[in-house]
């Protein structure tokens, strides 16, 4: 009887859902356009926490980051690096080309339920997404 009770307790505890992290989703996306220091241009950014080069960006459409005004799809970030930390945060950096300017380095930190642009200090909430199929809509 003692073995059966122990087995049932282990089965119940082992099957109990654990608290999930926003970083468990395939993609963590800025819920709102983020000021990354490109003048008046704010970007929507997606990070794949478990991919070393997993960063994409697009300019927001009419419904903000739920749509895009650029394309034909989202852009895979140039020189992207994603580094998870032991404290549960994620550092992400990439470069973006500017017309007639040197490429700009963008550095982000994902912490808890938000994304922070290190150059501006701007913070936006994040959302989980299972894909990056972001529909097009002009502003």
Please provide a written account of the structure:
By secondary structure, the protein is mainly β. The chain has one helix at residues 2-15; strands spanning 27-30, 34-38, 41-47, 55-58, 60-61, 64-68, 75-76, 78-84, 90-98, 101-111, 114-117, 123-129, 135-136. The protein has one domain (21-133). Helix content is 10%, strand content 50%. The termini are far apart. It is built from one helix and 13 strands. The longest helix is centred in the N-terminal third of the chain and has 14 residues, at 2-15. The strands form two sheets. Strands 1, 2, 3, 4, 7, 8, 9, 10, 11 and 12 form a ten-stranded antiparallel beta sheet that branches.
* Mean pLDDT across all amino acids: 84
With helices defined by DSSP (H or I, 4 residues minimum), what is the helix count? 1
Most strands sheet: 10 strands, antiparallel
Strand content: over 45%
Question: What coarse outline follows from CA principal-axis ratios?
Answer: globular
**Tally of discrete structural domains:** 1
Helix percentage: 10-25%
Order of helices and strands: HEEEEEEEEEEEEE
Instruction: Give me the count of strands.
Output: 13
Rg from alpha-carbon coordinates = 19 Å
- Class inferred from helices and paired strands: mainly beta
What is the rounded distance between the termini?
A: 67 Å
Q: pLDDT below 50 for ≥5 consecutive residues: which ranges?
A: 4-19
